[in-house]
Amino acid sequence: QLQASGGGLVQAGGSMRLSCAASGFIFSINDMGWYRQAPGKQRELVAGISSGGRTNYVESVKGRFTISRDNAKNTVGLQMNSLKPEDTAVYYCNAGINGRARWGQGTQVTVSS
Predict the structure, then answer these.
(1) Average pLDDT, the chain
(2) Cα distance between residue 14 and residue 81, in whole Å
(3) Rounded to whole angstroms, how far apart are CA atoms 66 and 82?
(4) Could you tell me the pLDDT band of residue 61, with boundaries at 50, 70 and 90?
């Protein structure tokens, strides 16, 4: 399973870090990533990272967000800087674990203007 932590309320321009840890029987984790879903919008991929460390970001967060992973600890993190009100959403971690896509429980990030 995936357990996310972090999230909460922050003022515009502030920073926040999300973390997600995989647990249980794990023999492989492929791509990991963070998605978000704002009210009335579709879930979108915010940032992804391959098992080899290759990253990709949605255009709107490039230069502000950084995704990282620790393969030894089976964790993925998302450092979010220069947050904007439009970053407000429920954030979900995702990972391909043992060949199956798994989702974390979602954590609310609210950026006040």
Answers:
(1) 97
(2) 6
(3) 12
(4) very high
Q: What are phi and psi of 60, to 5 degrees?
A: -70, -15
Q: Strands (DSSP E) along 24-99, which ranges?
A: 29-37, 44-49, 55-57, 65-70, 75-80, 89-97
Q: What is the C-alpha to C-alpha distance for residues 12 and 53, in angstroms, rounded to an integer?
A: 29
The DSSP 8-state label assigned to residue 65 in this structure reads E
Distance, CA of 99 to CA of 81 (rounded, Å): 32
Q: Residue 55: its pLDDT value, please?
A: 98
Percent of the chain scored above 90 by pLDDT?
A: 100
**From CA 48, how far away is CA 76, in angstroms rounded?**
10
**Which DSSP string do the residues of 95-106 spell out, in sequence order?**
EEETTEEEE---
The full DSSP string for 10-34 is: EETT--EEEEEEE-SS-S-EEEEEE
**C-alpha closest to that of 88 among 9, 34, 5:** 9
